[in-house]
């Protein structure tokens, strides 16, 4: 089973990062409206891509949290695979 504390810390850190990245995207958009340049446009695309990746990882983290608490009515193979990759818990006797 996954460590619930580790999952919750990842959830809150990811949420704070997502808020920061989305704020950066809005700032870049305002800079782009004032003086459109290729660099500000690239900054918008980069910030929005990072935001979407963070949101996808937060979906996996929330799934892992609900799985650890035992609140899932049925499993989702995609989220199971990625939550196991994000929060791998090895046995104490595992030599790796």
Instruction: Give the tally of β-strands.
Output: 0
Looking at the chains present, what oligomeric state does this protein adopt? single chain
Report the total helices: 3
Strand content: under 5%
Explain this structure to me?
By secondary structure, this protein is mostly helical. Helices cover about 75% and strands about 0% of the residues. The protein has helices at about 5-35, 40-70, 75-85. Helix 2 packs across helix 3. The chain is elongated and about 50 Å long. The mean pLDDT is about 85.
What is the secondary structure topology, with strand pairs?
Blueprint (H helix, E strand, L loop, with lengths): L3 H31 L3 H32 L7 H10 L10
Helix pairs in contact: 1-2, 2-3
Provide a short characterization of the protein structure.
The protein has 96 residues and is an all-alpha fold. The chain has helices at residues 4-34, 38-69, 77-86.
């Amino acid at each position: 089973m996954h460590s619930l504390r580790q999952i919750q810390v990842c959830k809150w850190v990811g949420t704070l990062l997502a808020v920061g990245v989305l704020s950066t995207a809005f700032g870049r958009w305002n800079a782009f409206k004032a003086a459109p340049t290729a660099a500000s446009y690239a900054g918008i695309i980069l910030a929005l891509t990072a935001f979407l990746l963070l949101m996808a990882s937060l979906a996996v983290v929330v799934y892992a949290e609900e799985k650890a608490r035992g609140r899932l009515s049925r499993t989702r193979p995609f989220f199971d695979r990625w939550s196991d990759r994000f929060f791998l818990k090895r046995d104490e006797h595992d030599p790796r």
